[in-house]
Protein 1
Amino acid sequence: MKSQLFALGAIALWATLATLGVSLAHVPPFLLTGIALLVGSVISLPLSGFDLRQWQIPKATLALGVYGLFGFHFLLFMALQHAPPVEANLVNYLWPLLMVVMAPLFLVGVRLRPVHIFAALLGFAGAAIAIVGRQGASPDAASAFGGWAWGYLPALGSAFIWASYSLLCQRVQAFPTAAIGLFGLVSGLLSLLCHWLLEPSVALTTHDGLLLCAMGLGPLGAAFFLWDKALKLGDARQIGILSYLTPLASTLLLLLTSQSALSWNIGLAAVLIIGAALLGTRA
């Protein structure tokens, strides 16, 4: 039960990412991610009692952390630049499904039951309805579907990276959760390097800085620490299915902050995702 609470905490923070992202849409994505990850890495200081010896982890573990945090965001940004955003986002949200079905491949003694697969597919269906429905009001949404773009490959790659990172964290030598701060620090510096190489420079306002701090302390900071605790304590299959609450909660928050009306597709998505979560956590 404690693992599910940690997972729900991470999901709640990730749900704010889209709303914060709307307010920071003018900030180049690698710059945004780099600053936010650096801010988020500071959380590890009080978490470790300001004992940086908890950052002394094997190089292979650090490589895994950078693979997860930096690799996921790098491929996702590539996907969003070279594929319709609706479809790229949907492909990216295959990661909870991949996390469920790949669990027996990565974790010793873990087996899949039909209920896990059914719940994961049910959750993906709900996520698809929530994501596509959120874009339904856009005049470009309908025309986005039906074509091929190579950006779907990095979208799938980003989904695989986050699913495999989440599972492999349970395979490596045990490390303190505070070490996630080192993952964020290195990944943030790499993101800033990508900004310098690939993106135009921009001037940030004080308001931008406050929002970036909120993003770093929340969805690109504390969420990773909570996620790590959830994975250390719980069943990866159940946590993966719970993760489908993220696009639903994100969509609901966007609707509330924009004062938009709820639509039938959000209600249907909620029924499917909550049903999947109940099935998965009881399996």
Protein 2
Amino acid sequence: MKMKWTLLTMVFTIVAVLTGCEPLMVLDPKGPQAQTQADDIMLSIWMMSGIVIIVFAILVFMLVKYRASKQSKDYEPPYIEGSKWVEAICIGIPIVIIIFLSVISVKSNYAVETTPKGYENQKPLIIYASSSNWKWHFSYPEENIETVNYLYIPANRPIEFKLYSYGPITSFWIPQLGGQKYAMSDMVNTLHLAADVPGEFMGRNANFSGKGFAENTFNVEAMSAVDFDEWVEEVKDTAVPLTEEKFTELLEPGHLGQSTYTGTHLDFSPAPEGENGGHDHNSNNSGEHAGQNLELSDSVKESEHNH
């Protein structure tokens, strides 16, 4: 009796605690990309739950049916041939499950790597999102403004993020709008997102990048197109210009609050696209540097010979 009441108490306690928890952000999508990923997560959870229930049901059946009996010590069970049907089921079902989940995953990957569903005919808002230790810089090249550690976007419009880093590899992630994608120092990654409804969301760096990683977050607010345009005009009227000296100061390691500027750092510190992208940033310069290194090597050899 005590065991029964103990188990019931544990069950009620767990249920009471879980009812007070907020929903996981990845399972509370506010955009088409996040909805696709949330659907895949729930599909996987339901499939795994079904498999676990079936396996435990079979386990209970086997334990009951083939439990130890009061046979004599010299009893030998009859030899039973293996069942081809049982073997086929044990091997075939996992293969079918893997194929099914693989197809779903591939289709979802293609879906989230393109313009969000339902927004194909709209012009995307392009935002350059760059990270530094430990801040996020958001450049709006068409609006000619820039923000630090906060992001305003219009709802019901596709957003095309251009991701890169001024420090270690980071990961740009807004859980309620879509999955994470890496930002690196020598290339630009593109991430397509959209917010179906206005609201406030949390964004962060999802990749460990040093001691300031935990505070490497930013606030996101999706608003109507009218409110977004009004905000842009307000920034242009009230914010101070972003100079190269100020941007260099912002890149220094440390934590800052939110700030807003007119102009963007793209004018004097462009993103690593085109000729600036990749490890071989400029073949001509590489040739010049190679020639200079060769001359320096010859000079060193001659100096050593003279000595």
Protein 3
Amino acid sequence: MSENLDAMARRLGEMQAKMMQLEALGERVSGLAGLNPAEIKVQPGRGGVSIEGKPLSLNEVKSVMSELEQASDLRVDMLSIMESRLMEQKIRSMMVPTQPPVSGPVGSGFGWRIDPFSGHNAMHSGIDFVATVGTPVFAAAGGVVVSQEWMSEYGLVLEIDHGQDLLTRYAHLSRSTVRKGDLVKRGQRIADVGNTGRSTGPHLHFEVLVRGVPQDPQKFLTASRAASPPALQAKR
């Protein structure tokens, strides 16, 4: 009996450690899912008519403990997979340009318009944010600066690669606070609004390209973060 009690005590200790592991995993997963961990910890209500049965035998107790142990192992595996998937989704959402690069109104949208220089119908490959010179420009998503150069039409321009064939372009800048090869975070200040290149006045020209093809940036800026990445939708 003493040996059986010692063995059960060891198994109870192992199960206690697994329950602590499950609790920690549950808190991390609920945090990634946007849930309140405190709500998950609330004990469910129990009740009903009490009908006494015979006391459990030692073998029955061992059997129940074995079933609980197997169930806890399964839940640890499931929560670990969920944590990994949620983390991947969170990272992916941070790499999609859903944050406006400038705080200001849109002066010119994406698509066909009358060119302000030639007066002819022309394709506008991005959107223009109205802002004064020196207004901070922020990264619409995390990524790597792949280009920082002067171009005749864009003036001082920055390009950030976000992976999955997704790239953002920031043009007509007055100055840049990052360089080619820098890692940037979503919302990080990367430049200042200017009036360089082919421009009629101070503003930020913002483009989103998927596999080199311009997309309407508004579709990204207004997309819900809970939805699938617009970059993937654009590829389909």
